[in-house]
Every structure is written in C-alpha cells, then in structure tokens.
From TrEMBL:
Source superkingdom: Bacteria
NCBIfam families given in the database record: ant_ant_sig (TIGR00377)
Protein name as it appears in the record: Anti-sigma factor antagonist
Protein family per UniProt: Belongs to the anti-sigma-factor antagonist family.
Domain STAS: from-to ranges: 1-100
Family annotation (Gene3D superfamilies): STAS domain
Native organism taxonomy: Bacteria, Pseudomonadati, Bacteroidota, Bacteroidia, Bacteroidales
One Gene Ontology MF term: anti-sigma factor antagonist activity
Length: 100
C-alpha cells in the first residue's frame, strides 16, 4: 500500500495505491494524519489506483469524515472502480461520502 499527500487548489489530496487491507491500515492511518488538520480545506481521497479496501480501510475513511465535518470541511472520494463502488454501496458508505 502506497499513499501520497499533496495540497492542490485549496484541497488536501491523499492518493491511495494498492490494497488497503488490515495489514496496511496502521501505516495508512499514520500517513493520513495531515488530513486531520484540515481546517478550511476540503479533502479528496483519490482511489483511482486503489485495488481493494477492507473494513479497516473503511474505518479510516469514516474516522476522517467524522473529524472533518465539524470543521466545515467536505471529504470527497475520487476515482473508485466498480468493485470499490459496490463495497461502498453494500456498506452504506455511498450515502456518507461525496464522489467526484
């Protein structure tokens, strides 16, 4: 699992590449820490190169959403493939996030 953090056009963007499974979730959570200081910035989770997400990965996304909303920030998910879209739909997460 590889993550890359960038600031782009007043957005905080985290790029995910590979499989976000239980084994990768601890390091990914550490990598996502800059996103928790999002005050005034909206967040994009770019999943274009994300192959798989486990319940541990979904938990990370949900935790970020719960932190960002009270600060007035939006969390967008960009570039999910059909398999990931089905996971988000089956878990109800498709109703929680905004998609780009």
């Amino acid at each position: 699992m590889k993550t890359t953090f960038k600031e782009e056009d007043n957005f905080f963007v985290m790029y995910f590449e590979g499989r976000l499974d239980t084994a990768a979730s601890a390091q990914t959570e550490e990598d996502m820490k800059p996103l928790y200081d999002c005050s005034g910035h909206d967040i994009i989770l770019d999943c274009t190169n994300l192959e798989y997400i486990s319940s541990s990965g979904l938990r990370l996304f949900l935790g970020l959403l719960k932190t960002a909303k009270p600060k007035g920030s939006h969390v967008y998910i960009r570039g999910i493939n059909e398999d990931l879209r089905q996971v988000f739909a089956m878990t109800g997460f498709i109703n929680l996030f905004e998609f780009k």
